[in-house]
Amino acid sequence: MKLRWGWTCLLLLCISMATWAQKEELDDEEEAQVEDGDVDIEADSGESSEADANVSFQVTYKTPVPTGEVYFTATFDDEYLSSWQVSKTMKEDADEDIAKYDGKWEVEPLKENKVPGDLGLVLKSRAKHHAIAALLNRPFVFKDKPLIVQYEVNFQNGIDCGGAYMKLLSDSEDLDLDRFHDRTPYSIMFGPDKCGEDYKLHFIFRHKNPLNGDVEEKHSKRADVDLKKIYTDKKTHLYTLFLNPDNSYEIFVDQSSVSRGSLLTDVVPPVNPPKEVDDPKDSKPEDWDERAKIPDPEAVKPDDWDEDAPAKVPDPDAVKPDGWLDDEPEFVSEPTAEKPDDWDEEMDGEWEAPQVPNPACSAAPGCGEWKPPMINNPQYKGKWKAPLIDNPNYQGVWSPRKIANPDYFEDLHPFSMESFRAVGLELWSMTSDIYFDNFIITSEKEVADRWAADSWGLKKLVASANEPGVFSQLALAAEERPWLWVVYILTVGLPIGLAVLFCWPKVCPDPTEEIPFNFCTLRERGGEREGVTSQTHTSFITVSVT
């Protein structure tokens, strides 16, 4: 019994550890991953009318202030867009009725989980082109300092098809924010984009060919994690791009890494072209044999091979069922049908009543001419073909010879791209109320982290306070991971079952109760025991226990 209890305790311990690990995973996903920062949180006195009614505590919000060198910040808390310019131009290569950038922008708080006093830039129109931009404090030049771009997005109504990415507009002489459009040169495009079931997180940079000056977009590899949740949970998410002078990059969502790589090896198309290319003047010789197998020229069709034998033949063992009605048709004319009054035999032809199943056949195994069912022909072999053998003249798959690539170059420093001096949002969306907030461009990680703690961190705290209870969270988690129901059932049901098994009191017999006499049972119990006396009856034995 002790060994039995030991195994039971060990099993319960394992289940508890598994449940605890899963709970920790859920907490890690939901909790704000914010660097240490000073956040003022006060007890809810019930007197604040500005706070979200769903928030269980009052937060004191202060517009974040950068703690170091920055190239650009935007919080929108002043309720104005004084530093931003809405585009007044038209989109090229688009129908005139939709080509104008007439989508509306507003500065307003979040719909849900709002932080009192915190405002953001909101894309208000659906199925329209939007374009808005702002100048940096000074241009960012790609030299020896890293680039850190960070901002917040909330798809408040979810997202059907549309983007929320930002563009870092190149420092060109003809840059005009009033005429900002889809073909305005940019250095980097970064941010979320979704259409259909394709969930993307763009990082695109424009690279200039050092030989001919052509500019080509380079796309980073796809994120290493599933991004669907950030488009559907209607929460504010933090997007961060780290780009380093050594050509390495890393992308974060909510301060968790989702993708990393190198500008030299992890973008498509690659920055540097191949050293060798196929010779366009080379062509395959006419006698080049690419056939790995050929029909055996010495093979001969067997004499008994009948190519004309059918694949199916009537079953010779089949017997017509008893009661088969050979003289009854399967279908008969509907007896109650009448020719329509407007039927014109010259135009419509001779009228015939519609056909219906023959009622006489309903009780019979079948009607009409009986034919045996068809079965596979055991003699069928099909068209004869010679077996294949290795081709003695096989030369392999032909490919053109390689020559030196006349367009080859080697750029080992793609980080040194064209400098930029403005931030722009040029978007089309089928969903409205996309929320943007707290843009920052800097070269210092500590500055970006503190900025996130003072802004996005508060939003995460408020959203966490409004999260459903533990049981609701467990149910939501099980919707995404159905196997969790097994863990829940084992966690709750197994301890109860074990408790019933080991702790339920055993029923002892009444000392004076007459029970059936059973020699086998008595023998298994070792015969007569001390303290047990018996009084023989016809078919019973009285047992007294002392």
UniProtKB/TrEMBL annotation:
GO terms for molecular function: calcium ion binding; unfolded protein binding. PANTHER family: CALMEGIN, CALRETICULIN AND CALNEXIN. The chain crosses the membrane at residues 483-504. It comes from Sinocyclocheilus grahami. SUPFAM superfamilies: Concanavalin A-like lectins/glucanases, P-domain of calnexin/calreticulin. Belongs to the calreticulin family. GO terms for biological process: ERAD pathway; protein folding. GO terms for cellular component: endoplasmic reticulum membrane. It is found in: Endoplasmic reticulum membrane. Pfam families: Calreticulin. Disulfide bonds join C161-C195. Residues 264-357 are annotated as: Disordered. It is a single-pass type I membrane protein. Keywords: Acetylation, Calcium, Chaperone, Disulfide bond, Endoplasmic reticulum, Membrane, Phosphoprotein, Repeat, Signal, Transmembrane, Transmembrane helix. Residues 341-351 have a biased composition (Acidic residues). Residues 275-303 have a biased composition (Basic and acidic residues). The keyword Isomerase does not apply. Its main location: endoplasmic reticulum. Residues 1-21 form the signal peptide. The keyword Magnesium does not apply. This is Calnexin-like.
